[in-house]
Amino acid sequence: MDAIKFVQEQLAQKKDYPAFRPGDNIVVNYRIVEGNKERIQAFRGDVIQIKGEGATKTFTVRKMSNGVGVERIFPFTSPNIVDIQLLKRGKVRRSRLFYLRGLVGKKARIQERKFIKS
Amino acid sequence: MEAFRLMFLIQNIIIVNGIIGKKIGMTSIFDEAGRNVACTVIEAGPCVVTQVKTEETDGYSAIQMGFGEAKEKNTTKPMLGHFKQAGTTAKSVLAEFRNFNLVPKAIGELVKVEEIFLEGDYVNAIGTSKGKGFQGVVKRHGFSGVNDATHGQHNRQRAPGSIGASSYPSRVFKGMRMAGRTGNQRITVRNLQVLKIFPEQNILLVKGAVPGHKGSIVILEK
């Protein structure tokens, strides 16, 4: 295990992102390479899962796009993430928000967490 | 590291072309293109040359290397003598490497990863696959089963089907693929790319999977 940790520490990029939790609304600016062109795509949605640890830690963002639910999984250590902005903190009672998949419209909203204990 | 290896070539002491290691586990890293690549972490070497076999004495030429410490009380006396000749402590694994053309290393010398492999090299990994016990033909030989064409029978879905004709030959041919013990076999996986070498930690990363469970012995060859 230690050797794996060592490898991950050596090879994984360390980046500082705002500390977000499941239920938060974020924008992920993601670098996309198409042939020779490179552009940055913003993916805005709710964090519904944070999974794994170390270099293989990932988070899942869910958004509604034209009435269709779209989920993307991003590795924290991905070099293609330009930056992450935290827009809203959500008030949720579980760490994996898969129940959102079955909800649409007003029911799929997450209450905003306005008072944040520091 | 290139220069390092050239030095060996010039001095005509090309060493062995393989090393013994231990599978540590798997992780994933990002390559230069930004792709997420699954890789296996292997603790490779350092190995000790315990015997040099030659055409004259043994009928074939090979280098025998040892890896991993063994307790002296668990090592037989003949083996202890063998290690003593090489001037090393008792080792838990011995393996022979046959493919080398030039003058080998001498007995008792250490062999390290960075002397043998370069980042970007392609290697073969030999290990013992995980034992899976008694398995049916679908898992063991990749049969597809009968899917839903069970003709109403409740337990035919993963059945092998016909194992031969009837009155001729009136027997089942040898080697017919059937259910049985699966895994726990010596498996060679060829052409795995070496992604990274950490010489100080004796750690090597290869792209993809390597046979065996964590902590099992893996032989890497070029």
Description of the molecule:
Chain A is mainly beta and 118 residues long. Chain A is built from 1 helix and 5 strands, in the order H-E-E-E-E-E. Chain A has one helix at 2-11, and strands spanning 25-34, 37-51, 58-65, 68-75, 81-88. A 5-stranded antiparallel beta sheet of chain A has the order 4-3-2-1-5, with no helix packed on it. The model of chain A has no long low-confidence stretch (mean pLDDT 87). By secondary structure, chain B is mainly beta. Chain B folds into 2 domains: 2-131 and 185-221, Translation factors (Elongation Factor Tu (Ef-tu), domain 3, Beta Barrel), CATH 2.40.30.10; 133-182, no CATH class. Chain B has helices spanning 2-10, 55-58, 77-86, 113-116, 137-141, and strands spanning 18-30, 36-44, 47-53, 62-69, 91-97, 110-111, 122-128, 133-135, 180-182, 186-198, 203-207, 217-221. In chain B, the strands form 3 sheets. In chain B, strands 1-2-11-10-7-12 form a 6-stranded antiparallel β-barrel. A 4-stranded antiparallel beta sheet of chain B has the order 5-4-3-6. Chains A and B meet through helix 1 of A and strand 1 and strand 2 of B.
- The proportion of residues forming helix of chain A, as a percent range, comes to under 10%
Query: The biggest beta sheet of chain A, please?
Result: 5 strands, antiparallel
CATH topology label of the largest domain in chain B: Elongation Factor Tu (Ef-tu), domain 3
Radius of gyration of chain A, in Å, reads 16 Å
Low-confidence stretches of chain B: none
Radius of gyration of chain B, Cα only, in angstroms? 23 Å
Structural class, from secondary structure content of chain A?
mainly beta
Q: What is the residue-averaged pLDDT of chain B?
A: 85
**Overall geometry of chain B:** extended
The CATH superfamily label of the largest domain in chain B reads Translation factors
The separation of the N and C termini of chain B measures: 17 Å
Largest sheet of chain B: 6 strands, antiparallel, barrel
CATH architecture of the largest domain in chain B: Beta Barrel
Separate helix tally of chain A: 1
Question: How would you describe the shape of chain A?
Answer: globular
Order of helices and strands of chain A: HEEEEE
Per DSSP E runs of 2 or more residues, the count of β-strands of chain B stands at 12
Report the CATH C-level class of the largest domain in chain B.
Answer: Mainly Beta
**Number of helices in the DSSP assignment of chain B:** 5
**Low-confidence blocks of residues of chain A:** none
Instruction: Summarize the helix and strand pattern of chain B as letters.
Output: HEEEHEHEEHEEHEEEE
